[in-house]
Write a structure and sequence with these properties.
The protein has helices spanning 7-23, 34-45, 49-61, 93-100, 136-151, 157-174, 181-194, 198-214; strands spanning 32-33, 65-75, 81-91, 115-119, 122-125, 130-132. The protein is an alpha+beta fold. It folds into 2 domains: 7-98, Winged helix-like DNA-binding domain superfamily/Winged helix DNA-binding domain (Arc Repressor Mutant, subunit A, Orthogonal Bundle); 108-214, no CATH class.
Length: 216
């Protein structure tokens, strides 16, 4: 089964951050700077700096990695006190759940469907997803498939990570009043290639029906 060519690099980054999290001696030492991360990826997997940057950004966008931002105070040569944010990176709770295939301490699933606010046909859900009300059924189908994929014993971690990217792309479109049909269809075609196994096929088929309606 084909996977995205960047998945291996994303997996290298996420696995390193996961192991770094597990072996850190204290909470303060868990986040790692981007220069150190690039050096580790170069030494371990011969990854280029731009490959680390682009795939790290992707992992942040899908919620598997989190930025750790702390203000740092310093003085300029003329004595002026200045502040600059120091940004480091660590695996998120979602990333840990992904690596460990779930835990009893995972945030309750019911939080997904809590409505926080509703403005001109757009709803923000409890997990932060933004959904055009016209696609609320599609949103629920996405959530169902997301959980089924996470629980599936038939999919590898790489396949689950690839599927997470496709689901994120679809969610990004259904937040809009007029979704981009080409992006929806491309994400769905990629997702279908990952969801042919029996444990997720039924949920994927249901999602496909809603995708067809949204892109028509």
């Amino acid at each position: 089964m084909a996977t995205h060519p960047e998945d291996e690099k994303r997996d290298h980054i996420l696995r390193f951050l996961y192991e770094h999290h597990k072996t850190a001696r204290g909470i303060a030492t868990i986040p790692i700077g981007v220069l150190n991360l690039k050096r580790e990826m170069k030494e371990r997997h011969d990854m280029k700096q731009n490959e680390v940057s682009s795939n790290l950004d992707y992992l942040i966008q899908v919620g598997l990695v989190r930025e750790d931002v702390k203000p740092r105070h310093y003085r300029s040569p003329d004595g002026t006190e200045l502040t600059r944010d120091e940004i480091k990176y660590k695996i998120s709770d979602t990333g840990i759940d992904h690596m460990e295939a779930g835990t009893i301490f995972t945030r309750p699933e019911s939080a997904r469907n809590i409505k926080i606010t509703h403005i001109q046909g757009v709803t923000v859900l409890g997990d932060g997803h933004i959904v055009n009300l016209a696609f609320s059924d599609l949103s629920r189908a996405l959530d169902e498939l997301d959980q089924v994929i996470a629980d599936s014993p038939d999919l590898s971690d790489e396949q689950k990570l690839d599927a997470a990217g496709d689901l994120t792309a679809i969610r990004g479109q259904i937040a809009k009043k007029y979704p981009n049909r080409a992006i929806l269809e491309a994400a769905w075609e990629s997702l279908k290639a990952t969801t042919t196994c029996s444990s997720v096929a039924d949920s994927a088929e249901s999602l496909g029906d809603f995708i067809g309606d949204a892109s028509s």
